[in-house]
């Protein structure tokens, strides 16, 4: 922001001796007029390229002014989003309108979660088991809604049961059952010359896990090659468990991506964030079941 000299301009160095606070913002005539009405004693400083607001409580008053402006902008954006919804509404059993925005409740779907996380200002309500999206984010929500609703319908219990019935007895069903049984063994093939640290969260094709033991038992590639591509006869079985939320919080994210073909690697922040959310949910379910 630039401002020409005016009768209000502060002499160079004078404000250094007086209590007050500097404030600067992108130049806009209306904003400047509103600022001057709110702070009539403010003076422009050419040296600092900022306004100086005198007074020992200046910082607090400036912060309150910025907060009020943000609230006004949010209210305007919410009104605009509410009007957009009224003009082109989303008609869906998964969405209802509340006082402050939209409430979205769907069957669990990773696609739904991923899509809603990309909607600005969306948030998950763990108590009500639904998503809140403010009116101001309607355009983003509207653009993503076809994928959200399609994923929600695919994950309705009846639809999942129907697909399961269709798969029964097929080769796909058999392979799925075998993969599920293998995962329940909580084992994972590891290169003998590159073993992960024991007791520390690391990332794998299963997600982030904590290896608890590597017994030295050799892997039989012929029996598990369908589940673990690239496995070889020198690999060892490592046994794992899911990490706790506290372990994941203490895990420092890696700054470089894993090497091509790595079996395990130190997790990056993009992997840690969803793992932490999942661990927090697991902990909450355990607490709810506890007597």
From TrEMBL:
UniProt region (Disordered), positions on chain: 1-26, 153-182
Biased composition (Basic and acidic residues): 153-181
Protein name (database record): HARP domain-containing protein
């Amino acid at each position: 922001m630039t401002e020409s000299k005016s009768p209000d301009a502060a002499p160079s160095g004078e404000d250094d001796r007086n209590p007050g606070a500097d404030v600067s913002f992108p130049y806009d005539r209306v904003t400047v007029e509103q600022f001057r009405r709110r702070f009539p004693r403010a003076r422009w400083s050419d040296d600092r390229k900022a306004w100086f607001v005198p007074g020992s409580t200046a910082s607090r008053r400036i912060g309150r002014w910025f907060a009020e402006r943000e609230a006004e902008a949010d209210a305007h954006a919410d009104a605009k989003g509410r009007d957009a919804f009224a003009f082109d509404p989303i008609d869906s059993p998964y969405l209802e309108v509340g006082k402050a925005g939209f409430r979205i409740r769907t069957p669990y779907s990773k696609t739904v979660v991923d899509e809603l996380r990309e909607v600005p200002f969306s948030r998950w309500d763990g108590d009500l088991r639904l998503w809140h999206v403010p009116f101001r984010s309607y355009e983003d929500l509207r653009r993503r809604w076809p994928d959200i609703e399609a994923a929600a319908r695919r994950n309705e219990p009846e639809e999942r049961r129907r697909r399961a019935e269709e798969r029964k007895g097929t080769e796909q069903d058999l392979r799925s059952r075998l993969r599920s049984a293998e995962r329940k063994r909580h084992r994972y093939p590891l290169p003998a010359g590159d073993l992960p640290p024991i007791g520390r969260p690391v990332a794998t094709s299963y997600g982030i896990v904590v290896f608890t033991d590597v017994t030295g038992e050799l892997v039989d590639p012929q029996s598990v090659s369908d589940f673990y591509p690239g496995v070889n006869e020198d690999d060892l079985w490592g046994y794992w468990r899911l990490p706790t939320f506290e372990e994941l919080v203490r895990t420092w994210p890696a700054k470089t991506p894993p090497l091509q073909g790595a079996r395990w690697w130190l997790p990056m922040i993009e992997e840690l964030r969803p793992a932490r959310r999942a661990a927090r949910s697991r902990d909450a379910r355990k607490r709810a079941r506890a007597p």
